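re: ur msg from earlier - yeah i can do the protoporphyrin IX containing FE complex, just paste it... oh wait u already did. ok heres what im feeding in:
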Amino acid sequence: MSHFGSIFLWVIYPYVMLASFFVGTFFRLRRPGTVTAKSSELLEKKQLIVGSILFHVGIIGVFGGHIIGIFIPESFTRSIGISDEFYHEFLALGFGGFFGACLLIGVLILIWRRFTNRRVFLNSSWSDLVVIAALGVTIVLGMLSSFVAGPMTAGFDYRQNISIWGRTLFVLQPHWQLMGGIPLMYKLHIVCGLAIFGFFPYTRLVHALYVPLQYLGRRFVVFRRYK
Ligand code: HEM
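and the outut:
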């Protein structure tokens, strides 16, 4: 890839997506009434419960794993006695595998439900459809990176390139050169993952930032079945 191509992908594009995430979220949270995932529970419930629980358990675990994987350097885990092998084989693949599998099964159920249930589909906006499909693609690419591309690439360790690049982005000195040699699957996964962050504030995903505490004190709203 050309010099400019790499700088675009690993410097300009990430900053545009991160700026969009922070600025967009700031303005969206100033209009709290619009921060919602517009529930479709009344349209279909069974698949939603299973898919949504698996998805949310998975995303919380995978999100935590990403924060640890990117922000905690190898030098720190080594200094507290965790070897690189133990970290990758047990922590990253074990926990990442468990939560990644929950996330993958959850998102597949939610995609199936949204595209095949007529009532849910007709009540979905373009953004709802695109966002769930984009999540599906990103999650599949993430799993393929961890469990296929990573183990098949001898000597590859994402904490020696991707994690350092990620940390240097936040101190405004991105080491984009580190991203040149990583396997394509990881590149595709990260480009899609960053897009999710960039579009996050303008989609239903924004509800993740909002803990609806008003439900604790509010009176019940009673729904009854039509038939
Ligand atoms: C924004 C930038 C992102 C970066 C830099 C990133 C980086 C990574 C890396 C390095 C791995 C491989 C870990 C390993 O080999 O053990 C991975 C795996 C994974 N990623 Fe991401 N990711 C990003 C966004 C996302 C998003 C938005 C999602 C989901 C919505 C996601 C879901 C996954 C999944 C499911 C896996 C496989 C299971 C696991 O290791 O947890 N990633 N990601």
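cool cool. Residues 84-116 form the longest helix (33 residues). ping me if u need the other ligands too
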